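Researcher: Structure prediction, please.
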Amino acid sequence: MYPGLQPIEDWFAANGWQPFPFQREVWSAYLEGRSGLIFSATGTGKTFSAWMGPVAEALGQSETGGLRVLWITPLRALASDTAVSLRMPLEGLGLEWRVEIRTGDTTSSERAKQKAEAPQALITTPESLSLMLSHADHRETFANLQCVVIDEWHELISTKRGVQTELCLARLRAICPGIRTWGISATLGNLDGAMQTLLGAEAESGVLVEGHVEKEIVIDSILPESVDRFPWAGHFGTQMIKPVISAIEEGNTCLVFCNTRAQAEIWFQNILGYRPDWKGHVELHHGSLDRDMRDAVEMGLKQGKLRAVVATSSLDLGVDFSPVDRVIQVGSPKGVARLLQRAGRSGHRPGVASRVTCVPTHALEMVDIAAARKAALEGRIEAREGVERPLDLLSQHLVTIALGEGFRSEEMLAEVRSTWAYRNLTDEEWQWVIDFIVRGGSALRAYPEFRRVVEHDGLYRVEDKDIAQRHRMSIGTIVSDSAMNVAYMKGGRLGTVEESFLSRLNPGDRFIFSGKPLEFIRIRDMTAYVKPAASVKGAVPHWAGGRLPLSNQLAHAIREELDLARFGVFDSPEMEMMMPLLDVQARWSAIPAEDEFLIERVETGDGHHLFFYPLEGRLVHEGLAALFAHRISQIQPITFSLACNDYGFELLAAEPAPLHEALQAGLLSLDNLGADILASLNSAEMAKRQFREIARIAGLVFQGYPGMNKSAKQVQATSGLFYDVLSQYDPGNMLVFQAEREVLEKQLESSRLAVAMGRLGQSKVVITEPERPTPMAFPILVDRLRETVTTEKIGDRIQKLALELEAEA
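Model: Predicted structure follows.
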C-alpha cells in the first residue's frame, strides 16, 4: 500500500466510515500517475475520491510547497462549499495544506497574498484560470502543480466554457508534463466520449471509474384528482398548490424546482399566499437575485432553518444541503439527466435515498413524467458532446497566452491540437486565426486597435498596455442578454434583470421580482429603479429564463410510452390517469406509433390547420415548422402562421395547404436540407444576433470599463456593423461562418433536426382529418393563442376550446 493511504483509511475509520471500492480505485490510479473520469451518483463521495489521491501523495512526500492541486468548478457559488469539503480531512490527517479560492469575487488583496505565497490547493473557475495564464509568471505559478480536478464536468463539456477549460488544460500539460487530470460527473450518458473530451490526446491512457454505490432513487408524482378537470395546457401549475403544500409539510426541508424564473416567482408567491405563517421559512433562489440574497438562502438550507426553497437550475449543482430530504419538480423535467441531478439534491449523503416528486402543470406532462422515470431508472441518460473548433474562443486564448510569456506558432499549434475540440483544426484555420489577432484579418487590417498581437523573431506577444487591460477584462465566454441592476429608489439592490425586458417597461408598469411586486420608475446609469407595488395583481414576470427544450433521450422515451398506450398498456399511475385523454385522441384521430408520423388536418373558424407530431422537442420543431412551411410554399404560394411545443407543431393558413403534393415532392427528404433550412429562416438576421457573442469573445467588441459598460443596444449595434462589414468585404471570414453554424446548432439543434428528418422519412405517414382539435393539438393551439392579440380574454378562449375535450374525456 502507498505510504499515504493508510492514514486515510484510519481517518475514514475514525469517522465511522469505510471507503467505497470506486474511491480506492481512483486513489490507486492517481498514485500510479494516471488521469481519468469519475462517474458516480450524487451524494456517494465523488469529492473525496478525487481529493484523497493528492492528499495521500502529499502525506508520502517530504516537500509539499507551492500550488499542488487546482480544482476547477463551473460556478463561483460552488467554490465555498467545495473548500469546506476539501479542508475537512486535512487537520485530522495532520497535513498543513491551505485550501483557498480564486474567482471573480476574490479581492485584489487576497489575490496578491496568493501570488506571494501560493496555497497548496486552489479552487477556481475556467475564466479565472484563463486570467492566471495571461500573466507572464504563470510558469512559476504552476511549476509544482501535480493534479487538476474538474468538478461537474457534465456542466462544462458541451459549452464554450468547456472548450476554454480544454485549452487551459493543454497549456498546463505543456508547462507540467506529468500532471494528472481528473473529471467528476454524476449525470452523463457518453462516458467514453466525455473522458476523451476531457483528456484530449492523453485519453488513450485514461481510466474511467464508475462508482456502483447502492443509492436508492425514488421518483414519484403528485397527480390531480381527475384528468377531466385538469388544465390541458397554458398554466404555471399553481392549481396543484394544495397537494404540494401537504408534501412540503411531510418532511423537514424541501427544494421546489421550477423550470423558469417566472414560474419560480409565481410559485413562491402562491406558497406564501396559502401559508403566510411560513414567511421567513420559505425562500426564493434563482440566478437573477443578488449574490448576498442567494448566499443567505444557501446558508439557511445548510443550517436546516428553512422549510422550503423555490428554485431554478441555480441550485442544480453539487452544493451539499444535507437537511434537504425531498425535492419537488414542478412541470416536465425536460430531460433524464436533469431529473436525476435534481433528485440528488435530496438525501445528499451515502446510504440515504434521494427522492424527487414530479408535479404536472397540465395533462400531457403526465406522459413526460412517466417517460422520464422509466428512462432514469433504466439509466438512459443524455449524451453531452463537446463543441468543435470555435475560432472566436481560440482567438481569445491565443491573445491570453500572448499576454503572458508569448508563444511560437508551431509549438502552440501542437498544443491546441492536443485538445479534443481542436484535434481537426486545419492549417488554413490556424493561419486565419493568427492573421486575425495580428492584423485584424483582411477587412480590419487598416485599424491599429485590431492589431493586438505582434510577432518578433517567431515569438507572438501583446505589447500594448491598453490592449492587455481590455483583454483581461473581457476574458469569459458566457454571453447573454445584458443584465441591468434592479434597485429601490431609496437604496438597496435586488439583483439583475435582462435589459431587453426592462427596456419594454413604461413608468408605472409592475412586475414580480425577488418574490416582491415592484413598480418600475425609470432607468438611469444601467440601473432600473423601482419601488414596492401595492399588490401582485396585474404583475407578471416576463424576463428570460425561457422554456427548457425537451432532450432527445426524453423525447424517445415519450414516443415509447405513447406506443405502449396504443395497445392499452398503461403501466404507471401517470399513464393510467391519461387513459381517458388518450382514448379521446385515439377515437378522434390516432395515437402515433414509434414508426409512424402523425399529421392532422383540421378546419376551424381560425382557418385550415396542419398539426404535425414528430415528438422531438420544441427546438427541433421550430426548425421543422419553418422548413415544412418553406417547402410547401414552393408548391403553392401560401402564408402560414406557426406554433409549436415539445410534442409537435402547427401550420395555420387561410386556405387548405397542398399536403399530399408536398409529401410526394419530398417534404420529408434529406436532399438539400441545409440549404432549405437556411432559406426557410431569416438566417442572416439570426446570424447577426449570434455574431454579437462571437464578436465579444474574439475581442472585436469591448463591453466597457467598470461603471461605464455599454448597453446591450450599443453592443448589438457595434457587432451588427462588424457583421455587415465582414460579410461584404471579407466573404471568407471564418467568424461569420461560425455565426451561421452556431445559429443552426444553438437555435435549431440542426444536427438533431437532420436525425429527426431521417427518422420521419423512414416512418409511415398517418394523415387524419378530425372534426375538431384533438387533445394533442390543444396545447399547441394554446401556445399560439397566447401570442395572438385579441379582444377576448385568453382564459375564456382556452376554456371554450377545453369544453368539448372535457365532455369527451
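Model: The CA atoms of residues 617 and 703 lie 35 Å apart.
Researcher: Thanks, that helps.
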